[in-house]
Design brief:
Blueprint lengths: L4 E10 L3 H12 L4 E6 L4 E5 L4 E6 L5 H9 L2 E9 L2 H10 L4 E7 L2 E6 L8 E7 L7 H4 L6 E2 L1
Parallel strand pairs: 1-4, 5-8
Antiparallel strand pairs: 1-5, 2-3, 3-4, 6-7, 6-9, 7-8
Length: 149
């Protein structure tokens, strides 16, 4: 079996206030962020740094991000691994009893979410893309209809 994971792609941090969090990371580490946009179905806004830090801000009190912050506070929300074949790993995960809790697909980009209760308390993202950083794809392409599960 070949190597399935290429690298850790990005780290997702759930925050209440994007401006406050961006100021913090900018002042402390010199990190700058680009707004990726709002994900209406999942009810969050996303901001990404070139270093691979993504800030996730809930846009609704009933979103998974808001529930996470309410229950556990701000902090590590998910860890994304860049993989060569997200579907193949997702199938393997299901065979191991790991629940798939979501999927986002866009042209040239796929992300599959694994349940944190099945992954040592960390939501794992299987992120598949080719020649560009997967989370910044929204900045470079026209908005297309996403597919969700």
């Amino acid at each position: 079996m070949g190597r399935e994971v290429e690298k850790i792609d990005h780290v997702v941090v759930a925050v209440k206030d994007a401006e406050k969090a961006m100021r913090f990371f900018s002042e402390l580490l010199g990190i700058e962020f680009d707004e990726i946009g709002e994900e209406r179905n999942w009810k969050f806004k996303s901001y990404m740094s070139p270093e691979g830090l993504e800030l996730l801000v809930p846009t609704s009190e009933d979103s998974e991000t808001a529930k996470f912050i309410e229950k556990r506070g701000e902090g590590l929300f998910a860890l994304s691994f860049k993989v060569s074949d997200a579907e193949k790993i997702a199938k393997k995960a299901e065979e191991m009893g790991i629940r798939i809790i979501g999927k986002i697909e866009r042209e040239g980009f796929k992300e599959i979410f694994l349940h944190p209760k099945d992954c040592f308390g960390i939501q794992i993202l299987l992120t598949e893309y080719k020649d560009y950083h997967g989370c910044t794809v929204a900045l470079a392409m026209e908005r297309k209809e996403d597919k969700y599960i």
